[in-house]
């Protein structure tokens, strides 16, 4: 699992420095429809976020506003994103913030390990927020 994505510097426009957000590769929804791949179920999903990411903040806000705190647990990755992307805090890290912990589902060191577990040939970006279906072992959405 040492496959690395393109360098982070390639995600910025060379002239303006603007961030070029690529389309998400996982854009599914939790739905009550009878044939839904991802039906609502307490404890079935796990949300991975970073306090350093504005896109992830919105999921924590919506989770709170909709009263989903007891339905969908979350883990915040370490704020430091290096060459292997977002990493999980270790027990030795003294990182502020709620739920900044090791990965409680798989015990992985990096968020990218979840993507590679689903698809060993994955070549996209490893982004937060990531909503993970614990029951099926699939990413529901990384948007």
Structure summary, number of beta strands: 6
The CA-CA distance between the termini, in Å, is: 23 Å
Sheet bearing the most strands, described?
4 strands, mixed
- Percent helix, as a range, is 10-25%
How much is the radius of gyration in Å? 15 Å
Shape by Cα distribution: globular
Strand fraction = 5-15%
How many distinct helices? Answer: 2
Q: Helix/strand/pairing class, anyone? A: alpha+beta
Low-confidence stretches: none
Order of helices and strands: EHEEEHEE
**Mean pLDDT across every amino acid position:** 90
| Main sheet: strand order | 2-1-5-6
3D structure, described in words:
This protein has two helices and six strands, in the order βαβββαββ. By secondary structure, it is of the alpha+beta class. The protein has a four-stranded mixed beta sheet, with helices on both faces. It has a two-stranded antiparallel sheet with strand order 3-4.
Primary descriptors:
143 residues; alpha+beta; four-stranded mixed β-sheet; 2 helices; 6 strands; 14% strand
What is the compact description of this entry?
The chain has 143 residues and is of the alpha+beta class. 13% of the residues lie in helices and 14% in strands.
């Amino acid at each position: 699992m040492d496959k690395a994505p393109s360098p982070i510097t390639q995600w910025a426009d060379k002239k303006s420095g603007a961030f070029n957000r690529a389309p998400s590769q996982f854009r599914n929804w939790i739905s009550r429809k009878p044939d839904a791949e991802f039906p609502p179920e307490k404890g079935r999903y796990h949300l991975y976020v970073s306090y350093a990411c504005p896109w992830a903040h919105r999921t924590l806000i919506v989770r709170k506003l909709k009263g989903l705190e007891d339905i969908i647990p979350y883990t915040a990755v370490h704020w430091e994103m290096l060459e292997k992307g977002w990493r999980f805090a270790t027990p030795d890290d003294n990182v502020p913030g709620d739920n900044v912990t090791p990965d409680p589902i798989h015990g992985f060191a990096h968020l990218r390990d979840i993507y590679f577990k689903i698809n060993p040939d994955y070549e996209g970006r490893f982004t937060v927020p990531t909503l993970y279906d614990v029951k099926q072992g699939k990413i529901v959405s990384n948007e």
